[in-house]
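thought: user wants a sequence for this fold. calling inverse folding tool.
action: design(structure=
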């Protein structure tokens, strides 16, 4: 079946007892057992729950995975993954410009337990090959990256990982299963913050790990149960509901984002625009090769500095100043002081997360309204001198 049909129907048959068309919310902590140790597949909801497991199964199907696990958050999925695959003395090879929460966990927590965190520029696969040592036990890829929207050649890097017999994981949050299929490109594990595009309505927090095969299934299952980062049935039900419209929403997110990126690129108040669908993006060809569409995220640098950027943030009416992304509503944020504030200023500057950088999560509102909102905010916030340059 096609993606849209699978998202609505896979593992979601009408309830055999009541005939309910929608998967029920099994709001229970425990399950009756026929005899000691004999049950119908579930004994305690931290270990497994029918609603949670339905969501995990549908996500696995959409990603072409054999096993799926859901978590209370994307970070919960990351922590479980690292606990399951890494031990003191091991090395984690990872993008240098990952999401701020990933950077914070790996550098401030995981490193304290003796795991070597090696950041490399993964836009060149050879940097990955050069960074591998005998201690490298996991290659962690984020593509597109947050907030600089750099793309990683997933197939090239997973080929390198396979050659060295090192497992790889792709954070597919920015693309969603609809736009990118990392397992088809060679990765072993996919991570999602289901809070974002999969949930899609900014009303639920969650995460997921999808596994290509059974290699790490037992370890992930054991650590999820032991760490306890499992989601509750209600949040899983909400996420499953959101998943049904993912394909429709992503089409509008992407078409709106492309049009706004083109508009911003020609705006006199904008210095640079970063969007994989623009010809100006250095990896536009790779985006066409491994993504269905370039996505719904845009980053751009306003002319001026932090004061001009903050003025833009305060001047929008439809774009809401808030963290997160992937909801039906459009959001605007300042990475240097919000999502990536935990990254040291020097590192932010080296990566290109400058004080005048703004990130947009483009929603599904009318394009004309979104464009008008950005136009008036930019005109209001950026002084004339910065538009024409120094005199």
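)
observation: tool returned 391 residues.
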């Amino acid at each position: 079946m096609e993606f849209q049909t699978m998202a609505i129907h896979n593992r979601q048959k009408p309830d055999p007892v009541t005939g309910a068309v929608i998967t029920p919310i099994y709001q229970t902590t425990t399950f009756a057992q026929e005899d000691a140790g004999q049950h119908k597949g579930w004994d305690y909801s931290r270990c497994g729950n029918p609603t949670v497991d339905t969501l995990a199964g549908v996500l696995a199907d959409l990603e072409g995975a054999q096993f799926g696990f859901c978590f209370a958050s994307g970070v919960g999925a990351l922590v479980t993954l690292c606990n399951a695959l890494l031990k003191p003395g091991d090395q984690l090879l990872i993008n240098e410009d990952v999401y701020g929460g990933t950077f914070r966990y790996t550098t401030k927590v995981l490193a304290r337990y003796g795991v070597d965190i090696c950041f490399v520029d993964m836009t060149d696969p050879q940097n990955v090959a050069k960074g591998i040592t005998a201690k490298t036990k996991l290659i962690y890829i984020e593509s597109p990256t947050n907030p600089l929207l750099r793309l990683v050649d997933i197939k090239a890097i997973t080929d390198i990982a396979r050659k060295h017999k090192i497992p790889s994981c792709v954070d597919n949050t920015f693309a969603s299963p609809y736009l990118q299929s990392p397992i088809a490109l060679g990765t072993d594990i996919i991570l999602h913050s289901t809070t974002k595009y999969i949930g899609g309505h900014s009303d639920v927090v969650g995460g997921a790990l999808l596994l290509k095969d059974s290699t790490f299934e037992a370890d992930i299952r054991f650590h999820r149960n032991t760490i306890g980062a499992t989601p509750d049935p209600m949040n899983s039900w909400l996420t499953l509901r959101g998943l049904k419209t993912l394909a429709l929403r992503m089409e509008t997110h992407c078409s709106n984002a492309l049009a706004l990126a083109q508009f911003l690129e020609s705006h006199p108040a904008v210095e640079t625009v970063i969007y994989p669908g623009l010809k100006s993006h250095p990896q536009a060809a790779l985006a066409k090769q491994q993504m269905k569409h370039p996505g719904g995220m845009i980053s751009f640098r306003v002319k001026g500095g932090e004061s001009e950027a903050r003025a833009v943030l305060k001047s929008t009416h439809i774009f809401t100043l808030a963290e997160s992304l992937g909801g039906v509503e459009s959001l605007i944020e300042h990475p240097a002081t919000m999502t990536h504030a935990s990254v040291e200023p020097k590192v932010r500057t080296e990566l290109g997360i400058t004080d005048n950088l703004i990130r947009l999560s483009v929603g599904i509102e009318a394009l004309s309204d979104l464009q008008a909102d950005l136009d008036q905010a930019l005109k209001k916030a950026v002084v004339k001198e910065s538009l024409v340059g120094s005199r």
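thought: summarizing for user.
answer: Here is the designed sequence. The chain has two domains: 3-243, 246-388.
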